[in-house]
Specification:
Elements: H1 7-14, H2 19-59, H3 62-82, H4 87-95
Bound molecules: zinc ion.
């Protein structure tokens, strides 16, 4: 069977890809496997990738760092798909109007606070 790319997928290979497009690509590529694995198993893979990112940040090349950032984001998108969370909508809701703590676009929260 020949897989044909959607217009959005073809466009995505030729330019910057939006978060929504990326989550859709991850959904198309992996959703069946991700649903079978479930949130718990998928979360373990995310944590493994976070560890690999830490190692790449500490001692990897720039190409290795870039690859690990991509992997972490892919596994985060995977979990969001399994949990039925639209990442783009979620970040727009939480961060689209500024810092969730102070409401400003350049955060003015105290250094002792998380943001
Ligand atoms: Zn703030």
């Amino acid at each position: 069977m020949t897989e044909t790319k959607t217009t959005a997928e073809t466009a995505a290979t030729n330019r910057a890809i939006s978060l929504a497009e990326f989550q859709g690509l991850i959904r198309r590529m992996y959703l069946d496997k991700d649903l079978a694995r479930g949130i718990d198993g998928t979360f373990m893979w995310l944590m493994e990738e976070v560890g690999e990112l830490a190692a790449a940040l500490r001692s990897g090349s720039q190409a290795e760092r870039e690859a690990e950032f991509a992997d972490v984001l892919a596994w985060l998108a995977t979990i969001a798909n399994v949990a039925d969370v639209d990442l783009s909508a979620a970040i727009a809701r939480k961060y689209g109007s500024g810092c969730p703590g102070c409401g400003k676009f350049v955060c003015t929260c105290a250094d002792s606070e998380k943001p």
